[in-house]
Amino acid sequence: xxxxxxxxxxxxxxxxxxxxxxxxxxPRIVEMIRAGELDNYLVVSNRKxxxxxxxxxxxxxxxxxxxxxxxxxxxGTSQLDDLLALYPDxxxxxxxxxxxxxxxxxxxxLAETIEAFRDALAELDVPVSKDLPTARTPFEEKxxxxxxxxxxxxxxxxxxxxxxxxxxxxxxxxxxxAFQAAYHDATEEFSLKIIEFQKEGDTFDSIFNxxxxxxxxxxxxxxxxxxxxxxxxxxxxxxxxxxxxxxA
Length: 248
Fold this sequence. Notes:
The chain is mostly helical. Helices cover 58% and strands 3% of the residues. It contains eleven helices and two strands. α5 crosses α8.
């Protein structure tokens, strides 16, 4: 399994074809339940787990096995990290030695937000009269402050400006409050990392591409939704959640 594997990978569970690691395991689970040998089922893996994926997996297993959802569980990398933080003596006994590595961005919050946005996109009601999200700094001024080339800025705007309306409606919906919080967690981290890594003379073209490459390399969810990931990064830039703006 790759370092960036996820419970959302179709190799683990493809809901359209009911294939993957979990469906392959299903006959054994059902047989153990029938034999009275299994009352609870817990999957522990070094895969990333989002709340959306967890809900889908629990619903699938509940429907196929009859086990109550509260007796089904999935633990991914974040949950394992939380447990190791809760029980530091376990970490010390395992003698973990963190690798020396450069600072990198965490894709988890953005992946969960984009996964939810993708699922909601087909039914998202965006009024024709809906205005574009407000750019706190005029786009041309924003590009000058961040050293984004004119050609790159025009291309981003032509490809993704229309999608910003949909993103804005999605994030503004009160029922998506949790995803809005995840979005802001992501932008806070990205903006601080960009300040650290952008050197004098660097174009924001290269920063944008570097950030995108880093995210899709570390998240299979984002890798399979690259256009939406680019659109979300553009939305962050357009609304001045990342990059230098006139207020600064």
